[in-house]
Write a sequence for this structure.
């Protein structure tokens, strides 16, 4: 299982804060509470690791200082770096970049949730319907297979697992969570395969359906829809991810940054990137 441990600046990023706000609106109270508890534990672990590094650095300075006193020829001028807070360590330019995005995180999350809810209620296009039917057929074949024949891992190859997950994500309700609860072999395969490439493949396949449904929409609106459903995939998978480090949220953040951050920056930030959704409400 691949782990993507978030740095403090990533956890403070606008993308991550929007993702957390989105999850708060889509998860049950108990699920979101568990998510917050995991986040608190991760931050404690991160602070402990950082403190240990500072202690080691200070210990190294004491050793270097001892060598300097013992050896008059020791090169002068070395100074221990000031161990200040993370914000103080950043240069002014970086700080201004972080403060430049003053978007309303809750307002953005509300827009994305509303978009997902409206799209979930729409009938599927013919192309999207064919894709979904193919995925459901794979899912049904997998349910009919005998998990006792051969190795359990061999019975559930990665592509079938991915297609099954995408099919369940496209269905309303908590179909994926129900599948996880009932099929322990499937859940074990999900845990074993969980990595960023695995998450990326699931999201790519899911967004193919979104693209099929968005053929008549402007490019900007299609991008907004893909951003929204990327957060939806990350949130829904987080609901079945019991890893204490909230791995799937880290995967979701990485996917958002890799695929949509340049476009959002070109639009002038999150608020401006989602203006097409405001225009749609007016119409």
């Amino acid at each position: 299982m691949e782990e993507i441990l978030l740095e403090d600046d990533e956890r403070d990023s606008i993308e991550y804060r929007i993702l957390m706000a989105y999850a708060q609106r889509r998860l049950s109270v108990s699920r979101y509470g568990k998510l917050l508890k995991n986040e608190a534990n991760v931050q404690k672990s991160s602070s402990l690791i950082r403190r240990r590094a500072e202690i080691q650095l200070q210990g190294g300075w004491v050793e270097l200082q001892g060598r300097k006193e013992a050896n008059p020829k020791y090169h002068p001028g070395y100074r221990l770096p000031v161990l200040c807070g993370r914000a103080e360590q950043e240069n002014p330019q970086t700080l201004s970049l972080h403060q430049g995005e003053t978007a309303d995180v809750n307002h953005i999350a509300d827009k994305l949730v509303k978009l997902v809810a409206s799209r979930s209620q729409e009938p599927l296009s013919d192309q999207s319907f064919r894709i979904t039917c193919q995925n459901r057929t794979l899912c049904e074949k997998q349910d009919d297979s005998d998990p006792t024949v051969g190795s359990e891992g061999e019975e559930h190859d990665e592509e079938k697992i991915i297609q099954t997950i995408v099919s369940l994500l496209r269905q309303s309700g908590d179909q994926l969570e129900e599948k996880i609860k009932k099929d322990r072999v499937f859940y074990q395969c999900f845990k074993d395969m969980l990595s960023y490439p695995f998450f990326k493949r699931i999201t790519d396949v899911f967004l193919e359906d979104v693209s099929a449904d968005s053929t008549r929409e402007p490019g900007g609106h299609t991008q907004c829809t893909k951003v929204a459903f990327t957060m939806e995939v990350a949130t829904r998978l987080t609901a079945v991810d019991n890893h204490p480090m909230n791995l799937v949220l880290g995967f979701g953040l990485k996917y958002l940054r890799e695929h949509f951050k340049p476009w959002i920056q070109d639009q002038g930030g999150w608020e401006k990137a989602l203006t097409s959704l405001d225009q749609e409400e007016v119409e």
About this structure: The mean pLDDT is 74.
